[in-house]
């Protein structure tokens, strides 16, 4: 526990007592029992609280601040693309939901139904949206009549419900979650194709620039694409501790399938009847779970400065007979100047907790930077600055504090990304044969293999790797393709390989 590193002169016994008294510190270690560690860290870090309905979680302010930071970035970017926010109802009738057969089959087991109102049965059951294609598109057909009505570009920030699953995991697999869903319609396929990639790039930026997580941009296989769509692109993250991929966010080209079902037709410039081309795209609160899994450590959360609700916590360290008020004033003054400079800083002036307890508390919550101020610091016109990501300490003169803090936070953001990328890259295993594939799978690797791109072959791999840990599947075919030498064979079917594809187990 970090209180062992405090400046107080506590004996070893006292420190143990502090831990026992406060219940601070995690019971599980990330490398030893990842599942239990994760469950503990999201609760102890005050991100979620468990709810009395399985698979539903209370998102606490510490989580919502991160969600809002991502929302502010993404919302501004899509507005630059002239995408407008709207809101559609949560409920959808059965006959509308059933309209696009492939689509509803893909979601059928997860749809939650409302069947009663008070004591009376509803004549027609109503579904709660698992996603909004079928909720929105009947109205697109009403609003789109001529080519001047296109493109129609809408987005909504909302919740969705997907009920049927085992092993709920906070953020990663929950029955209700928050997301944005964009739904756009165009006159041409070229416009739709372009937008798919533009949005995917924004998702990459969310992960890499904000959450400091490396991702692969690529295309999903036919088996793994969005049900009812033409093709699906995604950003794929990877959790080295579990050896599992995570579909980070998806951008789908729906083609004209939904336009056909919902009669989304328009009169083009030549006066001919044409069908719209559509996209849908989404990222969800799952992003936050990936961040916890990738960066968290045995002391708790580690938050990237760009999304942390509190970037800097200032803690007074009064000694016996020190002028406590002067120390508290110095802390408040420091917070004031940091906040005025645009940082998110807070002082922890609670007098019923020791500095050591506070260090542990804010480390658990993942605050990127801690500033300690004691009588010596005041005398020397300096403060002590401690990084959460690597524990490095440095004394900084008060005069240049704002500039130094700016540099340190930017360094933390960068080194979190670099450390995560290094770990992820060390897990990538290039294989060419089935035996190499199986070994890499058991070693929890992110597998890059030459593949013949046949659906039956992927189904076969799923079947053959089915087990307690879950089957292996394609994660994505990266846009950034390594060279495929002539004559390269598929790692499993032995047929000519058409592409390099990432495989692995996933959440």
Automatic annotation (TrEMBL):
Q: Which GO terms describe its cellular component?
A: aminoacyl-tRNA synthetase multienzyme complex; cytoplasm
InterPro entries on file: aa-tRNA-synt_IIb, aa-tRNA-synth_II, aa-tRNA-synth_II/BPL/LPL, Anticodon-bd, Anticodon-bd_dom_sf, Pro-tRNA-ligase_IIa, Pro-tRNA-ligase_IIa_arc-type, Pro-tRNA_ligase_II_C
- Swiss-Prot/TrEMBL catalytic activity: tRNA(Pro) + L-proline + ATP = L-prolyl-tRNA(Pro) + AMP + diphosphate
What keywords tag this UniProt record? Aminoacyl-tRNA synthetase, ATP-binding, Ligase, Nucleotide-binding, Protein biosynthesis
Q: Where is the Aminoacyl-transfer RNA synthetases class-II family profile domain?
A: 66-304
Stated EC number for the protein is 6.1.1.15
**In which domain of life is the source organism classified?**
Eukaryota
Report whether Ion transport shows up as a keyword of the record: no
What processes in GO biological process is this protein linked to? prolyl-tRNA aminoacylation
MF terms from GO for this chain are: ATP binding; proline-tRNA ligase activity
Give the source species.
Dioscorea cayennensis subsp. rotundata
Q: What's the name of the protein?
A: proline--tRNA ligase
- Gene3D superfamilies, per this entry? Anticodon-binding domain (3.40.50.800), Bira Bifunctional Protein, Domain 2 (3.30.930.10), C-terminal domain of ProRS (3.30.110.30)
Which PANTHER family does the record cross-reference, listed alphabetically?
BIFUNCTIONAL GLUTAMATE_PROLINE--TRNA LIGASE, PROLYL-TRNA SYNTHETASE
């Amino acid at each position: 526990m970090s209180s062992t590193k405090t400046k107080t002169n506590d004996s070893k016994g006292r420190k143990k007592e502090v831990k026992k008294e406060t219940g601070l510190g995690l019971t599980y270690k990330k490398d030893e029992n990842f599942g239990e560690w994760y469950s503990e860290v999201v609760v102890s870090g005050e991100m979620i609280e468990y709810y009395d309905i399985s698979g539903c979680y209370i998102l606490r302010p510490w989580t919502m601040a991160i969600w809002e930071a991502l929302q502010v970035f993404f919302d501004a970017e899509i507005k630059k693309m002239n995408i407008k926010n709207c809101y559609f109802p949560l409920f959808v009738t059965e006959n509308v939901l059933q309209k696009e057969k492939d689509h509803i089959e893909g979601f059928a087991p997860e749809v939650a139904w409302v069947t009663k109102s008070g004591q009376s049965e509803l004549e027609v059951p109503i579904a709660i949206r698992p996603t909004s294609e079928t909720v929105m598109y009947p109205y697109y057909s009403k609003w789109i009549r001529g080519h001047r009505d296109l493109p129609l570009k809408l987005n909504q920030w909302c919740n969705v419900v997907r009920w049927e699953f085992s092993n709920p995991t906070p953020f990663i697999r929950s029955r209700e979650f928050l997301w944005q869903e964009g739904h756009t319609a165009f006159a041409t396929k070229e416009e739709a194709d372009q937008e798919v990639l533009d949005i995917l790039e924004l998702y990459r930026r969310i992960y890499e620039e904000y959450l400091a997580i490396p991702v692969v941009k690529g295309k999903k296989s036919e088996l793994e694409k969005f049900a009812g769509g033409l093709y699906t692109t995604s950003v794929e993250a990877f959790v080295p501790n579990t050896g599992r991929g995570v579909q980070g966010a998806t951008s789908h080209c729906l083609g004209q399938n939904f336009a056909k079902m919902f009669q989304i037709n328009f009169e083009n410039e030549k006066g001919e009847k044409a069908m719209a081309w559509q996209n849908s795209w989404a990222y969800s609160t799952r992003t936050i779970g990936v961040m916890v899994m990738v960066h968290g450590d045995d002391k708790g959360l580690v938050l990237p400065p760009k999304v942390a609700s509190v970037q800097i916590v200032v803690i007074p360290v009064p000694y016996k007979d020190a002028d406590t008020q002067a120390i508290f004033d110095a802390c408040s003054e420091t917070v004031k100047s940091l906040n005025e400079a645009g940082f998110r800083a807070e002082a922890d002036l609670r007098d019923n907790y020791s500095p050591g307890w506070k260090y542990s508390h804010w480390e658990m919550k993942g605050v990127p930077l801690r500033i300690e101020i004691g009588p010596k610091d005041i005398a020397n016109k300096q403060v002590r600055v401690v990084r959460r990501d690597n524990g490095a300490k440095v004394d900084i003169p008060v005069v240049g504090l704002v500039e130094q803090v700016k540099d340190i936070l930017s360094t933390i953001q960068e080194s979190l990304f670099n450390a995560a990328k290094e770990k992820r890259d060390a897990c990538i295993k290039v294989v060419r044969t089935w035996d190499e594939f199986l070994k890499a799978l058991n070693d929890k690797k992110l597998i890059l293999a030459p593949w013949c791109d046949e659906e039956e072959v992927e189904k076969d791999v799923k079947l053959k790797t089915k087990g307690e840990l879950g089957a292996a599947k394609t994660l994505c075919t990266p846009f950034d393709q390594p060279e495929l030498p002539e004559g390269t064979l598929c790692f499993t079917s032995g047929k000519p390989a058409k592409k390099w594809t990432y495989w692995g187990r996933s959440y």
